[in-house]
Design brief:
Elements (H helix, E strand, L loop, with lengths): L18 H30 L6 E5 L6 H14 L4 E5 L4 H9 L7 E5 L11 E9 L2 E6 L13 E3 L6 H12 L9 E3 L3 H10 L4 E5 L5 H8 L4 E3 L5 H7 L3 E6 L15 E13 L4 H15 L23 H9 L3 H5 L2 H12 L1 H42 L4 H20 L7 H23 L3
Keywords: Membrane, Transmembrane, Transmembrane helix
InterPro entries: TRAP_TAXI (IPR011852)
Pfam families: NMT1_3 (PF16868)
């Protein structure tokens, strides 16, 4: 009957220069520890401080609106840094805000006019700053009006249904005692349609806001006999009652210097368009967007001074911490001197220096333990082979099997002769050699028939 032989553990492979084994022990140890550190750092990077996204989505405004034009300017600027900005057309600020508040829409940021967030929970949103004025300009038939309350009982164009202009108009009129359902007729039209109705006498006043109050349209209306623009003498009161409003002036001649239009300073009230984002917007993307806003809106204009926008003044939304940091200190040194993608990696690496240091100290202590384990595991593999040979020697074995066991012992001794062992483990090495001799003696005794 054939006796089942236990499996022999494979002896260490020592091909070539025996010094390679020691070199390999050190190399494998350091590589294993380095790989562990890199893996842990990578997990921290991606889980705690992920890389900025390559693509973000922005809800803008209607076709040919200033909101859409602005968003497309942002898109071109962000493309310089390898970031793709997907621009979505919308009906305006109201739809933009709803898209931001709906996670299923996957919209990252939007331009939102002040005054459209009443009754909505906007705690999940943050502002990167105000970027331009969206003035309220009231044209009316006649002269001498300076208060919205004087329009009671008249026909007023207040903006189309669902628009930010309509929402803001209703709030301003309500503050002056004019509400839907009364004697005042509120007409759902804005822009050129409202201006045409005003000139034709179909409405008595038109509240224009933002894109409706263009320079060209205001000039055309002011040249029409019998059409005047309302001077908000109570502008300061409006800014107190509605914190999202600012007081701005149209100086004499700002629309047409040659004809000095307007002839006198006109006081206006205006919300601002804010760059609003979801609270999980990546800080690096936030910096790029504010930088783009500075490039687009930093120049002087009809209603603003140079450098007035973007502005970190909070209105309806909390200014993000990243935006506050950017407005105070600007771009970091890395982002000023390196390409965006490289600066992003460097910035995240600096943030992780402390966690890396915490990981390195245990890793340095792990290296000696791992090295000891590799050396001892090599010795234990020899012992595994010796135990198997000894068991075979004690069993009833044939002459041929005993010869094979001697050959295996010779292989072990030859392997040990080539093995280069660190001095710290010399005692274990020589004990192993003694045990090889002990097993050989047991095998010789079995061959001679001695117990």
């Amino acid at each position: 009957m054939k006796v089942h032989r236990p499996h022999r553990p494979r002896l260490p492979h020592l091909a070539g220069d025996p010094a390679h084994a020691e070199w390999r022990d050190h190399t494998v140890t350091y590589i294993a520890v380095a790989a562990l550190v890199v893996l842990m750092v990578t997990l921290v990077v991606w889980l705690v401080d992920p890389a900025p996204p390559k693509t973000i989505t922005m809800s803008a405004g209607p076709h040919d609106s200033s909101f859409l034009v602005t968003a497309n300017q942002y898109r071109k600027i962000l493309a310089r840094n390898g970031i793709t900005l997907k621009v979505l057309e919308s009906d305006g600020s109201v739809q933009n805000l709803r898209r931001l508040l709906d996670p299923k829409q996957h919209v990252d940021l939007a331009l939102v006019q002040g005054g459209v967030a009443d009754g909505l929970d906007t705690s999940s949103l943050m502002s990167l700053g105000s970027v331009f004025y969206v003035p309220v300009v009231v044209f009316y038939r006649g002269t001498g009006l300076s208060e919205l309350s004087e329009l009671e009982g008249k026909r007023i164009a207040i903006g189309r249904e669902g628009s930010g202009t309509r929402l803001l108009s209703l709030k301003l009129l309500e503050a002056n005692g004019i509400a839907p359902g009364g004697d005042t007729v509120l007409v759902p039209s804005d822009g050129m349609q409202a201006a045409t109705q005003l000139v034709a006498g179909e409405v008595d006043a038109a509240i224009l806001n933002g894109d409706s109050a263009t320079r060209g349209l205001m000039l055309r209306l002011l040249k029409v006999p019998g059409i005047s623009v309302m001077n908000f003498d109570e502008a300061s009161a409006y800014t107190r009652l509605f914190p999202y409003l600012d007081e701005i002036d149209l100086p004499p001649g700002v629309l047409d210097l040659k004809r000095k239009i307007p002839p006198d300073t006109i006081h206006l009230i205006s919300p601002t368009a804010e760059l609003v984002a979801r609270s999980d917007l990546h800080p690096a993307i936030s910096d790029l967007l504010i930088e783009a806003a500075q490039e687009v809106h930093g120049m002087p204009g009809l209603l603003q001074h140079a450098g007035e926008f973007p502005s970190p003044v909070a209105h309806e939304y909390q200014i993000s911490e990243d935006a506050q940091r950017y407005y105070k200190t600007g771009k970091s040194f890395l982002y000023r001197t390196l390409p965006f993608w490289l600066a992003s990696i460097g910035d995240r690496t600096l943030v992780l220096l402390l966690p890396m240091a915490v990981l390195l100290f245990p890793a340095m202590r792990l290296i000696p333990a791992l090295y000891r384990w590799r050396i001892r595991s090599r010795i234990y593999r020899y012992y595994g082979a010796l135990i198997a040979i000894e068991r075979d020697a004690l069993a009833d074995s044939t002459e041929e099997e005993r010869k094979r066991l001697f050959v295996e012992l010779d292989d072990i001794e030859a392997s040990l002769n080539r093995l280069r062992m660190p001095l710290a483990y010399a005692d274990a090495f020589y004990v192993l050699r003694e045990h090889v001799g002990f097993v050989r003696s047991r095998l010789t005794a079995a061959q001679d028939g001695r117990p």
